Amino acid sequence: MEKSLARYIWSNTRLEQIWILLVVAASMIPYFLSFDLPKQIVNGPIQGKGFEHPGDTQTFMHIAFDMPLLGHVEIFQGVQLTRMWMLVALSMVFLALVVLNGLFKLYINTYKGRLGERMLRRIRFELIDRVLRFPPVHFKRVKPAEIATMIKDEVEPMGGFTGDAFVQPALLGGQAVTALIFIIMQNFWLGMIAAAIVAVQAIVIPRMRKRLLELGRQRQLTARELSGRVGEIVDGIGTIHANDTTNLERADIAHRLGLIFSIRYDLYQWKFLVKFINNFLAQVTPFLFYLIGGFLALQGRLDIGQLVAVINAYKDLPGPLKELIDWDQSRQDVQVKYNQVVEQFSVDNLIDPKIQVVSHAPAGRITHALVATNLTVVDDSGARVLDHVSVEIQPGERVAIVGDSGAGGEYLAEAFGRLIWPDSGRVSIDGRDILELPESLTGRRIAYASSETFFFHGTLRSNLLYGLKHAPLVAPVYSEDEATKAKWSVAEARRAANPEFDLNSDWVDYAAAGATGPDDIYSAIRPVLDAVTMSQDIFDMALRSNVDAAAHQDLTSRIVELRQALRLRLEEEKLEDLVVPFEFDAYNLQATVGENLLFGTLKRPQMTNRKLAAHPYFRQIFAETGLVSDLYDMGLEIAENAVELFTDLPPDHPFFQQLTFMTAEDIPTYEALLQKLNGKGYEAATDDERAAIIRLSFSYIEPRHRFGLLTQVLMEKIVQARAKFYENIPADLAKVIERYDPERFTASATLMDNVLFGRIAHQQANAPERIHQIMYDVFGRLGMHDGVLSIGLDFDVGSGGKRLTNVQRQKLNLGRALLKRADYIICNRPLPALDHRVQDQIARAILGEFDSDGYAPAIIWVLSNPSFAELFDRVLVFDHGSLVESGSTTDLLEKNGMFKELLS
C-alpha cells in the first residue's frame, strides 16, 4: 500500500483536486473585494469624501484597465450617482459579494464532501479487498473486531481529510494571505504586527500539538484493543460463564478503561492549553490594532475608513489561520492513523487479484487427479503436522482418511480445500499448483465441509445457496426511476474504484446445482437435505412459521384443500380424535381460555394481549357478560393450586416447563398476593391485582392442567361472549384481529395452525409427532413439498447461525457443500456432533445419492469412526503427520497393521 496519505489522495483524485483548486483561486477575487468595499463606503458616501458640495456625483462601476501593448482599455464607463444613491449602490454590491462568497463556499464544501466520501468508499473497499486476499495463516494472528474497527472507524477521518488535503490549505491560506496583504496595503506597520502574530501562531502552536498527536495515537491503539477484547468476550461468553471468570473479565475491562481515561484526560489538558494560547494570541492583535491604529488615526496618518477596513479584514484573519493550524494537526493525526492502517494491512503473500477475478461462465469440470507431492505443513508452534506426504486422488474415487485426531489426515483435507498453505511441497491438478488456479475453478469444482461451521446472518435459503453465488448472472428488472438510481450507483462505484456488480441481480448458479432456474431449484435442494437428514428439521420450522401470503400464494391459496386432505387422512386412519377443530358455536377444550374468547389471532405488533385487555370495548364485553368475576375466581384458584404445588420446587424443576401461565419467578409474587386477598372478594383487589389474577385464566387448558376449573356453564358463557364480541366490534379492533375462518388463510397464525384449523389433543400419546408425519405425507401427496420447503428456508438463522443447533449447523454445512455438485468433495470430520449410527446413515445416503444419478464425484472423507471405511474404495491411514498405510479395507486388514489397530 502507498505509505504517504497525501500521495495516495493525489494519485486517486488528481483531476478533481486541480478543478477545485481553480475554483478556490477564483473565489479569492470577490473575497478581496469584500475587504476593500467597507473602506469605500465609510470614506465615500458616509464621510462625504468627493461629495463636499450639494448635488456632487461620483462615478460608479467604472471598469477600465491599462493593458500591455493595448494601452488603456475601457470596458464600462460607469454611471454618475449622488451621495445617497452611491451609498445604496455600494451597499448592494457588498451584499452581492457576501452572497457570491457564500455560494463559492457552498460549492467548495459540497464538492469536498462528495470527494471525501468517494475516497472513504475507495479506501474501505480496498482494505476489505485485502482482507479477502489475506493468506489463511494471517487470520490466526488478528482479531476480527480489531479489523472491523479499523475499517469502520479508524479510516473515517481519512474520508473527511481527502477533500481538505489540498483545498483547505489553498482556501484558508489564500484567505489569510489576502487579508494580510490588504492590511499591509492600508498601513505597513499594522500589517507587520498582524504578520508577526501570524508567524508566532504558525510556529509555536504546531510544535505544541506534537504531544497531542502522540496522545491521539495512544488513544487509538487502546480503543482498538478494547474493541478486540470486547469481541473476545462476546465470542467466548460460554467459556467465561463455565469457568466463573466474569469478574476477571470485569477487572480486565476496568483496567483498559482506566488506561483510556488517563490518556484522554492528558489529551484534554494539553488540548485546552494549546487552545488557550492560540486564543490569547488571536485576541492580542485587535488590542494592538485599537491602540496603535487609534493613535495613528489621531495623528492623521490613518483615516477612519482604513482603520475600519483593517479591523474588518483582521476579523477574517484568525479564523482561516486557526483552521489552517487545525488542518495541519488533522493532517498529522490522519497520517498517523493511515500509517497504522498500512502497517496492519501490509501482509506478505497476499493472494494475487487475478486468482479472484469474477467469472460469469460455468467452470469446466476437473478431469485430472488431485495430487499432493511431498506435502509438509508446520503449525504455529513449529511442529510438523504433515511430513512429506505424497498422495494422488483420481476423479470419481472414494477415499477414506483415518487416524487419531491430529494424526495428519485433517491437515491433508485442509490443504486439498486450500484452507492452509503448505510450507513445502504442493497440491496440484494437471501439473498446476492449486494455489495458482483461479478460485472460479477451485471454489466451484472443489467442495469442502468440516465441523467448523459459519453461517452469515440471513435465511436458511441464502446460506444453503451461498456456495452457488459466484457472479451476477441475471440482471434485475427495474422501473424507470430504479434504473436511473442504478445507473447513478454504478457511476459512483466506478469513480470510487469499486466493482460495478449489482447486488440485486440473481447470483445463484442454478445449473451448477443441477437445476434450470429458481422454479426447480427445490428439486435439487430436497435430495441433498434428505441425504443429510435435514428435511424434517426444515419441515418443522415451516410448520412453526408465520407465512407471507404474498410470497407463498401457491400454498396459501390451497389452504382449504390442505385442511380437507388432512381431515380425510385422519378419518382414513381412524385418528379423528387427534385434532379438535375450531367451531364458532363450540368451546375448544384443547385451546386456551384466551383463544376461545377471541376465536382468532392478533396481528402483532400492532395489537398485543396487554393492549387488547385495556381496550374499552373488550372491557365492556367482559362487564356485560359477567366474565370478569368468573375469570377472576378462576384465576384465583389457578394461583392457589400453582402456589400449593410448586412453591417448594427449585426454579429449574422440569414441572415448570408444563406451567404455561406463570414462571418460577412469579410464584413468590402470587403467594404474597394470595395472602393479601385471602377471604376477600373481587372488589377488594386493585385494577392491577385483578389484571394479574385474570391473566392466569387466559392460558388455562383443562385437559392439560387438570385443575377442574372449567365448568360447562363457564364454557357456554365464553362462547356467548365470543359471539357478542364480534357483533359490534369496532373498526380499529377488526383491523388487528383475524377471526378464524374455515374458508380463509389466517396470515397471523402459523402454517401448522392454518392447516390444522384446530388444536392437537393433549391426552393422545405422541400426538404432535404423529400429526407432523401425517401432515408431511399430505403435503407430499398434494405436490406441495416445495412450497413448505420454501417457507422453512425463510427461517432466519441468526448471527453466525446461532439460532440453529450444533447438529443442524453441521448438517447444513455439509448440505451446502454437496449442493455445489463439485468434482471433488472433501469432508473433514463434518458431523462429530452426531452419533456414529446417524453419521453412517448420512454417509451411505450421500454415496448412494451420487451413484444413482450418474454424477460421480471424488469423495475424500476424514472419518471419525474407522469402521465406515468399508464404504470407500481406498483408505489412507495417518499417524504423527505421516501417511503410513494405503489401500482397500480388505488389503489393510490382511496386513495386520495400524488400520486393524484403529478398528479394534
From TrEMBL:
The keyword Transmembrane applies. One of its GO terms (cellular component) is plasma membrane. PROSITE patterns: ABC_TM1F (PS50929), ABC_TRANSPORTER_2 (PS50893). The chain crosses the membrane at residues 18-37, 85-108, 179-205, 280-298. The keyword Transmembrane helix applies. It holds the Pfam family ABC_tran. Residues 75-326 form the ABC transmembrane type-1 domain. Keywords: ATP-binding, Membrane, Nucleotide-binding, Transmembrane, Transmembrane helix. It comes from the Bacteria. It is found in: Cell membrane. It is a multi-pass membrane protein. InterPro entries: ABC1_TM_dom, ABC1_TM_sf, ABC_transporter-like_ATP-bd, P-loop_NTPase, Type_1_exporter. GO terms for molecular function: ABC-type transporter activity; ATP binding; ATP hydrolysis activity; ATPase-coupled lipid transmembrane transporter activity. Residues 370-902 form the ABC transporter domain. Its main location: membrane. This is Putative ABC transport system ATP-binding protein. The lineage of its organism: Bacteria, Pseudomonadati, Pseudomonadota, Alphaproteobacteria, Hyphomicrobiales.
